[in-house]
Structures are given as C-alpha cells and as structure tokens.
Amino acid sequence: VNPVQADFVRLLAGPSRDITAIGDPDQAIYGFRGADVALFHGFPRDYPNTETFLLDRSYRSTASILDPARAMLGDDASSADFSATLDGGLQVRFVEAATERAEAEQVVHAVEKLVGGTGFFSLDSARVRAGEDDAERSFGDVAVLYRTRSQAAALVEAFARSGVPFQTI
To answer: What number of other Cβ atoms are within 10 A of residue 31's Cβ?
Structure first.
C-alpha cells in the first residue's frame, strides 16, 4: 500500500481498530505507485491486536514455478519457506534481452519452436528443426502473459512481422 491507502484503511478501521487485511511484503513491484513496504511491516504496530496467519503453501503452482520466483526475490524475501503442493510442471527458463524489441523477437522464436514453425522459412533458417518434440502444439495452445499493457506493443509488432497469428485481450 501507499500512504494514502494506509490512511484510508485507518479511516475504515475507525476507533475500534478492528480490521482484517491480507498482505504480501514481496509486492515491492508497486513502488512506482508509491507503495512502501514499511507500511506493511508497521501494520502490527498500528494495529496492536494483530494476529498473523502465514499463508506458506501454494495450491496452484508447482515447485518448478515457485523455486525460480524465490530465486528472483532473493534471500530477503518473506517467501523463503513457501512450498508447493503440486508436483511436475514445465521448467522456467530465464532469458535476458537488450531491449523490449529483442525480448519480443525471442518470444516469437519460442512460439515458432513450440508450434513447429510458421512456414518453410522456419525450417530453412534453423529456427525450428524438423521432427522436434515441441512441434506437437498449435497456436491455440500458446499464451504470452505480460504485466502491463505497454509491453504489448513490441509483442504485437513482432508477431505481426513474423506472420504468427495472435490476438490481444
């Protein structure tokens, strides 16, 4: 939360200071909106009767998703003891790109590989190899997720240029 939101919560709680809240100190990504993790950590001080219930199990993600997420958050993350209840899952692959356009091109190449290419050029350019196991998917099996709408522009441009069918929602 940011300071204005914290003040709003105080108003909602009123003099009784009776309120239920759910929070995650690892949501520092909202710093650009003025979020301050100190407000999260100060909650028990501001609301002395606070009871804390640690939600430390994921019932929808596998370890192959949670372990890389934990690694990205680092040793200071509150989710260090977070565990998955599901087995299996695809492995996460980290890829660095110099620009958002380069990142979009990497996504296009990955999609082409997943579906076995978009035409002869995919095979001729060695973007895709004939007979790869990954080629058993169709475009309808692939989704590209991004955090903000502004990230879509580079992806839309790269998909359109490569001839990969796509839709945005």
So the answer is: 11
